[in-house]
Specification:
Blueprint lengths: L1 H23 L1 H10 L1
């Protein structure tokens, strides 16, 4: 029973973390990509 709850929390955390990273990455990533 806890497996579904943990899985749901994991997906929520993964989605939130992914959105944050995807929103914060492009700036430094683009700079390094163009500069490198």
């Amino acid at each position: 029973t806890d497996y579904h709850m943990n899985l749901r929390h994991f997906y929520v955390f993964a989605a939130y973390f992914g959105l944050t990273v995807a929103w914060c990455l492009p700036k430094p990533l683009s700079t390094q990509g163009n500069g490198g």
